[in-house]
Amino acid sequence: xxxxxxxxxxxxxxxxxxxxxxxxxxxxxxxxxxxxxxxxxxxxxxxxxxxxxxxxxxxxxxxxxxxxxxxxxxxxxxxxxxxxxxxxxxxxxxxxxxxxxxxxxxxxxxxxxxxxxxxxxxxxxxxxxxxxxxxxxxxxxxxxxxxxxxxxxxxxxxxxxxxxxxxxxxxxxxxxxxxxxxxxxxxxxxxxxxxxxxxxxxxxxxxxxxxxxxxxxxxxxxxxxxxxxxxxxxxxxxxxxxxxxxxxxxxxxxxxxxxxxxxxxxxxxxxxxxxxxxxxxxxxxxxxxxxxxxxxxxxxxxxxxxxxxxxxxxxxxxxxxxxxxxxxxxx
Amino acid sequence: xxxxxxxxxxxxxxxxxxxxxxxxxxxxxxxxxxxxxxxxxxxxxxxxxxxxxxxxxxxxxxxxxxxxxxxxxxxxxxxxxxxxxxxxxxxxxxxxxxxxxxxxxxxxxxxxxxxxxxxxxxxxxxxxxxxxxxxxxxxxxxxxxxxxxxxxxxxxxxxxxxxxxxxxxxxxxxxxxxxxxxxxxxxxxxxxxxxxxxxxxxxxxxxxxxxxxxxxxxxxxxxxxxxxxxxxxxxxxxxxxxxxxxxxxxxxxxxxxxxxx
Lengths: 331, 261
Fold this sequence. Notes:
By secondary structure, chain A is of the alpha/beta class.
């Protein structure tokens, strides 16, 4: 499957798998490792085409990360594929010291992130992976919005010399207005650059992963309410595009962030770190509020935890209200 | 080094001195002038806390000035408390948390085998380190891929930081365990140069399997008051102890007369 053949309804992991296969043809140094999750991560496409460069390491994520480090230190570009709850969840120490401290050129692929593991329940739903990767020196963190962007991101992270964490979902965006996201993400993925999906002047909506679609739907609704929202897709959470974040906030003066992740340590936290001491604005952070997930349909679970366009619209109205209120006090 | 640093590990490095000397001055194919030479053998240290003996070996081999050894554990030094691959030439891997080097050595051997390289990978691991589950994950995977270019040298000194290995978490027969995992096992006296060299030669000759060299060593070897003492695993000597220890080492325990006596 070529990039152009990826439809809006394609799950993100399929875009990843197709790109990995294509990358395998283009770069002979790429090797792929998995811990008994070959098909679930879609590493099977690469494995079938390049059996000699594919390594099935059994249910042992710590060893897998260590082996990837050794391979990177001898010139390979290893893609380490598992569910995010296991890797980097279980292999974090190996990621920290082996990969990050040595700047080993390892690409860590965390699958089934957010609520996308659905029926598997809380144990398999990665809602903390951005927090535990974002804090590691030398590690870049990339979180694409859909299958097409995941496809593009694979080539971009292979180009980037150094450790990267790539956050992949098992699903496509939860609402089929994902078509809009799909259309808007067709531009070339630029590593480290925030993607302005819609220009606006009243409020900035920051989103990452599948929640980008929700932000776009929220912006549509807001425009009906007479509010001109700007939508930024933060596909590279680290290094964060500080310049774009600040430029947008200086213009709009209010913000809402949304992510399929704990509020603690994720995209919202990253945005707060950038603006602290630079701009003072009303801001609302939408994410999972210190809860574990549970078995259920991913879209249903996201809705239960308030990860919806409707919640974003409400939050946008709130921050715009606060902005106006402040203006009145200070004037 | 340890006295100047006022911290560090004493017993392990002394027990491994004979093995490191043999590796760096006889076994390893390496070039201190070109630390990144692609066809070099790799020495992966999985138990990073024994780095004083690694640093001393690298300096004596010519990777950096011997005078730099005194900066060990000092602020601003390249000789970190645990080795940093990026900072110091000759250090093949960053190491500290136990078990990780074993997997990294497997990764290097796998990748070098894939490239058709003739380089050998040696991994130094401690016996206490075998408490870590990751070590056994690595052992399983090395056997799966029949890594003939990998030899793990196990420092079987029977001590770890909290006491004797068999009291802390009994390892029992490492030989039986490695053989059960389909490795070729050689047991040696880790203070006998001939046995160390022969075991490394044998490791290269064994073609179908990875090789575990279980080196029986004496922790704190050469310093009477440190030998066999778990309490010397993780501490540095005082000035007086350091003087006494150096004198013992340089006079082979008083058997050789020195001018200063």
